[in-house]
Amino acid sequence: MTDLATMRESALTRIEEAQDAAALESLRVELLGKQGSISGLMKTLGKMSPEERQSEAPKIQGLRSDVADAIAAKKDALDAAELERRLASETLDLTLPEPQSPKGSVHPVSQVMDELAEIFADLGFSVATGPEIEDDWHNFTALNMAETHPARAMHDTFYFPDVDSEGRRMLLRTHTSPVQIRSMVKQGAPIRIIAPGRVYRSDSDATHTPMFHQVEGLVIDKDINLGHLKWTLETFLKAFFERDDIVLRLRPSYFPFTEPSVEVDVGWQDVNGRRVLGGDGDAPGHGWMELLGSGMVNRRVIEFAGLDPDEWQGFAFGVGVDRLAMLKYGMDDLRAFFDGDQRWLDHYGFSPFDQPTLSAGVGASA
Ligand code: PHE
User: Which residues does Mg(2+) bind (predicted)?
Assistant: First the structure.
């Protein structure tokens, strides 16, 4: 009898004094576990006489349930205290300034590509892509540059060392024009696409990097003429540079994949020693800057891509995206685009919130 009273008292005191969940758990095992002391008491019931058992059983069971209740209550108390402690240590004072953490930015090339997609989407163009590792046929042959064509030499092509099972040598595409072929082969006509992406040429100085970006434009439809090309480029450049006074000068040129071919210059004016696009390039203090190559798609190219050139005509153009970015946002060294210098990225990068929209003007505010 006294034994039970002492056991109860000592058990309850020890439960009350348990410091943490682990100590409480080992106490539970010690008292109520299979080998525990109170469980041991339960086992003695079997050996008792029925009368003895009748008087002892309720006391022992009472002890067991009191101890179990005390442990459960203590566990709740410890859990609550732990939660309090964590809440106290994890408070966030919203009146303090934000912690300084590294911030990313959108590269001007990506920003300009988004602007281009936005402008051309409004004109009904979708965005097409093609592989950067191209085969000779798509990059040259189907664009009317046969194996012996001198224009191939001007492209400073990076070739892969091995030939494939069909004897083809793969290369890094030298322009986005192979996407013209891929789009015509894949979707037939009519077509209205732009194809922005990386291109590669073995060339490196202040204005040339071995990898740079172009955007290709292609329209294939019925009765397309040079006027459509001029209007499209004018509309695009006015929207892109956000000026109504963009003036184009079209000059005869040569590309194997367009006929006739047209080089497009844009008029600029001198503003405090800086060349700013806009205005008639022939006016005093003004000039012309060569900006892009274009032309009516050569009928041989339309044939190569599996379409009938008597039924389908179109125009194509290609522009350097990096150059567009430099002209619009005022960078002067192309190499810095690809150095990954954090200071340059902080200065010229855009906030992800600066999504180009036509309604707000495609230009970003950074
Ligand atoms: N692919 C040409 C280049 O890289 C540009 C171009 C594209 C010209 C489409 C005409 C038509 O220089």
Answer: 259
Which of ligand 1's atoms lies nearest the C-alpha of 174?
Answer: 4
Residue-by-residue DSSP string for 251-295: EEEEETTEEEEEEEEEEEEEETTEEEE-S-TTSTTEEEEEEEEEE
| Residue 123, domain extent | 108-348
The owner of tokens 């503003």 is 271
pLDDT, tens digit (0-9, with 9 covering 90-100), for 212-271: 999 999 999 999 999 999 999 999 999 999 999 999 999 999 999 999 999 999 999 998
Which residue's alpha carbon is nearest to atom 7 within ligand 1?
Answer: 318
Predicted TM-score (pTM) of the model is 0.72
Does 293 fall in a domain?
Answer: yes
Q: Whose CA is nearest to atom 5 of ligand 1?
A: 318
Is there a domain that residue 366 lies in? Answer: no
CA–centroid distance, residue 355 to ligand 1 (Å): 28
Ligand 1 center to residue 273 CA distance, Å? 31
Model confidence at 5, pLDDT cuts 50, 70, 90, reads confident
70 torsion bin: left (phi>0), alpha (psi -120 to 50), beta (else) = alpha
Tell me: do 145 and 206 sit in the same domain: yes
Give yes or no: residues 201 and 56 share one domain: no
